[in-house]
Amino acid sequence: MDQSLRNGAADSAVKSHPVRHWLHQRLTALLLIPLTVWLLLWFDKLPHASHAETKAWLLQPLNGLAVSLWVLLTVYHAALGIQVVLEDYVSNPKLRRTAIGAVHAVFGILGLLALAAMAMIWTGN
């Protein structure tokens, strides 16, 4: 069997849905634009806000939901971007799959930790 065919078959798990991957990257980028602008405008006021004011702002349902959505989208978008870099520049299929799995695990944990922090704010812990 041709070596390039074997490498392609071994690598099929990584590149099984390139159109969906591309679409998810573009969709998360588009959703992040207004959320990031909104967050940056609020961050402009942050240096003057007390801890209590910041917490009260995060406890407002729309603000808490928007920050949580921003965190989830940012983590997912970053993981997708790093996956593309790994797919393009890591030539060993086994190493590439391992690295992509590690990236997804690390970013998944970061997202869960951020959501746990938001949950602690919402529950008052």
SSE topology:
Layout: H1 3-10, H2 18-45, H3 51-59, H4 61-89, H5 93-123
Helix pairs in contact: 2-4, 4-5
Jot down its keywords.
single chain, 125 residues, mainly alpha, elongated
Structure summary:
The chain has 125 residues and is mainly alpha-helical. Helices cover 84% and strands 0% of the residues.
What do these coordinates show?
The protein contains 5 helices and no strands. It has helices at 3-10, 18-45, 51-59, 61-89, 93-123. The relative contact order is 0.12.
- Helix percentage: over 70%
Report the principal-axis shape.
Answer: elongated
Described by its quaternary structure, the protein is single chain
| Largest β sheet strand count, sense and barrel closure | none
Secondary structure tally, helices: 5
Beta-strand share of residues? under 5%
Poorly predicted parts: none
**Helix and strand pattern:** HHHHH
Radius of gyration: 19 Å
Rounded mean pLDDT is 87
Number of strands: 0
Structural class: mainly alpha
The end-to-end distance, rounded to whole angstroms, is 60 Å
